[in-house]
Design goal:
- The chain is an alpha+beta fold.
- It has 5 domains: about 80 residues; about 110 residues, PAS domain (Beta-Lactamase, 2-Layer Sandwich), CATH 3.30.450; about 110 residues, PAS domain (Beta-Lactamase); about 170 residues, Alpha-Beta Plaits, CATH 3.30.70; about 240 residues, EAL domain (TIM Barrel).
- Helices cover about 45% and strands about 25% of the residues.
- It contains 27 helices and 27 strands.
- Strands 19-20-22-23-24-25-26-27 form an 8-stranded mixed β-barrel, surrounded by 4 helices. Strands 2-1-6-5-4-3 form a 6-stranded antiparallel β-sheet.
- A hairpin with a 5-residue loop joins strand 19 and strand 20.
- Helix 12 packs across helix 13.
- The longest helix has about 70 residues.
Length: about 750
Amino acid sequence: MHPRLRRQLAMLRSDLPPAFRKLISVIDRAYREADTERAELEESLVSMIALLHRTQSRAVRARRRKQERLKKVAKAHRRLERVLEKSRLALFELTADLVVRWANPAAARLCGTALEDLPGKRIFELLQPVAAAELSETWSAALRRGEPVARTLACSAPGGRSLACDWVLLPRMRRDGSVSRVTLVLRDQTEAVEKNDAVREREDRLSVALSGTSDVLWDWDLRANRLYLSPRWQDLVGGPPAVTGSPGDWLDRVHPEDAAPLRAALSAHVDGHTESFEHEHRVRHADGDWRWVLVRGSARRDEKGTAVRAAGLMSDITRHRTLVERMAHDARHDALTGLPNRTLFLDLLRHSFNRTRRHEDYRFAVLFIDLDRFKMVNDAFGHEVGDQLLQQIGRRLESCLREGDTLARHGGDEFTMWLDDVRGSADAVRVADRVHEVMREPFELAGQQIHSSASIGVAVGSAQYQKAEDVLRDADVAMYRAKALGKARTAVFQREVIEGAPAHVQMESDLRSALVRNELCVHYMPIVDVMTGKVRAVEALARWQHPRLGLVPPSKFLGLAQEAGLIISIDQWVLQTASRQLHDWRREIATANRLSISVNFSRDLLEQADVGAQIDRVLRESQLVPGDLNMDINESVLAPDNGIISLADLHQRGLKLHMDDFGIGQGWLRHLHKIEVDTIKMDRSFLAGGADRDRQVLGRIVQIARDLGKTVIAEGVETKEQAKLVREVGCSQAQGFFFSPPLDPAKTRTLLQGGVLDVV
């Protein structure tokens, strides 16, 4: 019962009847038992609630752990899917019969098939190795025994692609020992196999190349100081002793003069001062001779930059060096006589001249020797006999030399002597007298005795001269004075004689100096298309920039050059200069690609036996073709009795022949029919009169020339009326001051860049 009621009944218990007190006690006991049961029930309920809470907490934690595991499994599955999708390894899940159940994207890429098309297909239908049926049976038997299979096979994929793959098959077994499924891993090894094949192919190529060449392969291990030399080394040095692997196998055979430079070059490359190693030196052959070798190679370095290995090739260049030395010798020596040529003689002269600057008392002398009437021998007996005469004369002149002197062939029938350390002109004259003495004896040629003599000019070199070439020039001037005195004589250069000489003698001396001092220049006269104004060609005209007289026109000095025997040298110089200039214009100006050059050829130049070879050499050096050169020749060259037979040969080479100053000779109409002539250049006299009769004559000539397939160029067009006339009569091209005067190279370049001239 309620505690308060129990306290009130206790206070009244003595006043209550016993039956009532007994009832109250029963009731109170019942209440107490009920309270005890309730307390026990409450305690059990609390325990049950606590147990329920623990059970619920465990379930929640289990669910959370399960959810976390599921999340991790899903994440791992997604990661695995991404890995399998991006993987280069092709993965298949196969049945026991090797039928595809599942595959990753890499497998689809490898097979060249859509991913959804793979399930249900046999693996050997997708990738077909050689003998697929036998492999299927063999592999299935191994897999049934639970054995994995690993092979590298070449196979073909759909579309005909050839592959090389690593195959790894792993069986998954049931408890009863049967195969439930097979995991197949494929790795594409095609690229690696191809690289290996390429490496083997390169090695095979290198082996074949080395076996087919005379080059020696060398490989130097710098750390171990071991040198490998391929078997070709034995061929290079002539056999034994055998290679020991020591660097001395190579270095001990090097020529003593080349050993130090070779070691210096090697050290420079090993120390990193040069990017590659290359050196030429001599090695001793077994027969005692020396062989020239070219060694090339490079060093391999570690991460610190230290050279650890050097390798390369060694080539036998003995034949090449011999050829180069022969070419160098030939470039400085005359091919006919074997004597030094003009180039070598001038180098020697410059060396002696420099010595006069260091030693004021040192003197040297130059003898300029010209053979008298040599052309008569060529005309009478032919060039072959003339060459033999030059060879015999060269040997006789060598017998006149003192110890230390030098004889050279200057060119043609001219020789020069350099006399070392003379006291004065008297020493040189004594040598000249010996020359005259040996020349008096007849020469035995072609079964006949031929007599020859020489005119000799002497000049003594000293510190008074400014250039070495001036000494040679003065000896040349003295030689012409000896010829003027009656030939077969000696004349010593005397400056006072030259300074007091007549004007034409002074002019001749200046002209000879002009060739040495490069005072000549070339101006260019445009040749224009009379209808369009385009410049089709330019004519090269020689000019002389005289130090006192200024610019001298050709009419003032070419005749003198002809008389003095200088015309050939001038023609050759103009040809070389104009050809190089045309090459330069073509590189700089696009419109100059079809431009040609016209050069005047004198009769003297055409009489040279090697004129064709001279022209070929100039064109080759200037990178031109024969069609780029127009040869302007005078009518007199075409005369039947001129003795020149080279025109047809030159025309066959592809050179264009232009007949210059056409119409002023006696047989000009006959020359019009010569097949060698491509173009006629009408003389300016046809335009000077302007009468109707001259117009008719000009028109008739032009018509005949055009009917014969020849081009006509009008010369001397100076007025607008003359330009109109040449167009009316049918001339296709013209030149003259109406279009442009001769221009220097710079102004000609500006004209060519403009492209078109006014022809109205």
